[in-house]
């Protein structure tokens, strides 16, 4: 802005100087022309008087060649001319200045002389004998005047130009200085001249708008970062040129790049042909995806173009573990198959027994036996459906479950009381020990954990066996341990006991009426409480399962 003001002032100053000089030159030209004419009018009178006295001899005696002198007879014949031969000159009777002198005694004119090929000023005076004395001088031209004064003109122009530059520099700095001193954070405190007040007010309004927009953007950015930072999927936001705008921890980890790569081209860190093709299609406005292996794990890369109107302004690149999806799909198919199988067995038993009863093909003495079998399978079927429903509910539960303070020891005692009839029937002793230990969680789920662990410990125990439930409180955690003196679990099967429908001893499970979902429910409920499960087991000696809840 300073340069623009400086140039504008200098341009105006130069134009003013040139205009003033042109006006002065015009005035000076007219002044010198008038002065030259006046001097010639006086000189011609003096020469006329001298010619009256001495005639042609006087004219010949004058050696000044700067003035042309012509003596013209009454009939227009040239008697004498100091620059041309009078014999060769044409009649001058019709010349304007001669005619005026003949008529009034004096005459003058300006015209181009064909004889001398110059513009001349003529002045004539009539003598007593009616002859005319005429004198002429070369008229001073504008360019001649300019050339004669070129040195002072250049000096004046340079001085004026220098003064103008200094003035323009000083003035431009003074004009811009208040603008440079405006504090954009507090524009209303700036001391400016009145003309800048509307600008300052506008800046103040815009500053408030910008601050509000910055706060809103910062809020949205924080929300976005909080939402994406702990996601198991990798998320990268790119502009239309493939430059990274945002990247979360998972994407940074998967691609092996730092989160400080923001502002750089993604292809600098991942130059694979598949990634290049993926981004190229997205830049063209096409949704594209590809599966790529990273550390022996298949990851699904999904590139979605972001549009603003009809123009692609960005790209959202999402990376997630495709292997996990495949495993989840496999588990879902396996679960569906297991559910179908587990439901089919009791249903077939119920259907077969009821069909025999309805057709009268069962002896009267065997009816109670068939009815008992139908009742047993129906109860097993109900238990199985209830466990499936529980698992379904646990799958739908979020990590933000309803939290309350619960004494885990009390839960263990109540569970033991409820399972006492079952334990007595199986000839198993159940004991609860420990200390009051507060756990934050959901009462129903905690009860489910204790119940299923104790129920399994009773079912897979020996006659005359024992189940010990212990609750201990530590500085940073609470531990629940359920130990039995049962059949134990082979070490190679211990990692699979929490799978749905998995049974260590399938024949015994059906004998005791197990659904194969109890430990899966324990696993899911423990996960929702951020608890860890540890299994210790020795075949034919017993099993201990420890659940550690963080305080």
Short description:
By secondary structure, the protein is α+β, with helices and mostly antiparallel strands.
Describe what you observe in this structure.
- The protein has 551 residues and is of the alpha+beta class.
- It folds into five domains: 2-147, Beta-Lactamase (2-Layer Sandwich), CATH 3.30.450; 181-227; 228-320, Beta-Lactamase; 325-396, Signal transduction histidine kinase, dimerisation/phosphotransfer (DHp) domain (Helix Hairpins), CATH 1.10.287; 404-550, Heat Shock Protein 90 (2-Layer Sandwich), CATH 3.30.565.
- 50% of the residues lie in helices and 22% in strands.
- The protein contains 14 helices and 17 strands.
- It has helices spanning 2-54, 56-61, 96-104, 142-148, 150-180, 197-229, 249-255, 273-283, 322-358, 367-396, 408-425, 443-459, 506-512, 518-528, and strands at 67-72, 78-81, 106-113, 118-126, 132-138, 234-239, 244-247, 288-294, 297-308, 311-321, 404-407, 428-434, 438-441, 465-473, 477-484, 532-538, 542-550.
- Helix 11 (408-425) runs parallel beside helix 12 (443-459) and helix 12 runs antiparallel to helix 14 (518-528).
- The mean pLDDT is 78.
């Amino acid at each position: 802005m300073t340069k623009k003001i400086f140039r504008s002032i200098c341009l105006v100053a130069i134009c003013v100087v040139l205009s003033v000089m042109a006006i002065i030159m015009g005035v000076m030209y007219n002044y010198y022309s008038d002065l030259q004419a006046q001097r010639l009018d006086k000189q011609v009178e003096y020469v006329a008087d001298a010619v009256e006295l001495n005639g042609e001899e006087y004219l010949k005696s004058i050696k000044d060649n700067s003035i042309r002198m012509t003596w013209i007879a009454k009939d227009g014949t040239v008697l004498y001319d100091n620059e041309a031969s009078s014999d060769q000159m044409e009649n001058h009777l019709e010349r304007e200045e001669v005619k005026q002198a003949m008529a009034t005694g004096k005459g003058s004119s300006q015209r181009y002389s064909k004889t001398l090929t110059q513009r001349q000023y003529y002045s004539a005076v009539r003598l007593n004998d009616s002859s005319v004395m005429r004198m002429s001088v070369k008229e001073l031209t504008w360019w001649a005047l300019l050339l004669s004064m070129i040195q002072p003109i250049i000096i004046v122009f340079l001085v004026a130009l220098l003064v103008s530059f200094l003035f323009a520099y000083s003035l431009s700095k003074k004009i811009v200085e208040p603008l440079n001193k405006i504090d954009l954070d507090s524009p209303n405190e700036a001391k400016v001249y009145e003309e800048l007040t509307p600008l300052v007010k506008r800046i103040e309004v815009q500053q408030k708008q910008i601050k509000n927009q910055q706060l809103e953007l910062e809020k949205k950015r924080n929300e976005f970062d909080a939402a994406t930072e702990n996601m198991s999927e990798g998320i990268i936001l790119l502009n239309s040129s493939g430059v990274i705008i945002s990247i979360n921890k998972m994407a940074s980890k998967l691609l092996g790049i730092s989160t400080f790569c923001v502002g750089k081209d993604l292809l600098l860190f991942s130059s694979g042909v598949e990634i290049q093709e993926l981004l190229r299609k997205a830049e063209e406005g096409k949704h594209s995806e590809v599966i790529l292996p990273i550390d022996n794990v298949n990851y699904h890369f999904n590139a979605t173009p972001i549009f603003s109107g009809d123009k692609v302004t960005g790209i959202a690149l999402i990376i997630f573990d495709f292997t996990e999806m495949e495993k989840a799909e496999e588990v879902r198919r396996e679960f569906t198959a297991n559910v179908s199988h587990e439901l089919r067995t009791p249903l077939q038993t119920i259907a077969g027994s009821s069909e025999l009863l309805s057709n009268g093909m069962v002896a009267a003495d065997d009816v109670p036996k068939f009815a008992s079998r139908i009742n047993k399978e129906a109860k097993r079927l109900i238990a199985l459906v209830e466990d499936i429903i529980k698992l379904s509910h646990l799958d739908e539960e979020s990590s933000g479950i309803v939290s309350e303070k619960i004494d885990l020891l009390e839960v263990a005692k109540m569970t033991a009381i409820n399972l006492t009839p079952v334990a007595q029937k199986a000839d198993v002793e159940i004991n609860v020990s420990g200390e009051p230990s507060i756990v934050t969680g959901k009462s129903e789920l905690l009860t489910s954990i204790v119940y299923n662990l104790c129920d399994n410990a009773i079912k897979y125990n020996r006659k005359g066996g024992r189940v010990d439930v212990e609750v201990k409180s530590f500085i940073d955690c609470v531990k629940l341990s359920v130990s039995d003196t049962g059949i134990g679990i082979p070490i190679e099967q211990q990692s699979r006991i929490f799978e749905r429908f998995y049974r260590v001893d399938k024949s015994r499970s059906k004998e005791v009426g197990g659904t194969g979902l109890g430990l899966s429910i324990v696993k899911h409920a423990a996960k929702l409480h951020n608890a860890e499960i540890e299994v210790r087991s020795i075949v034919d000696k017993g099993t201990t399962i420890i659940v550690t809840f963080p305080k």
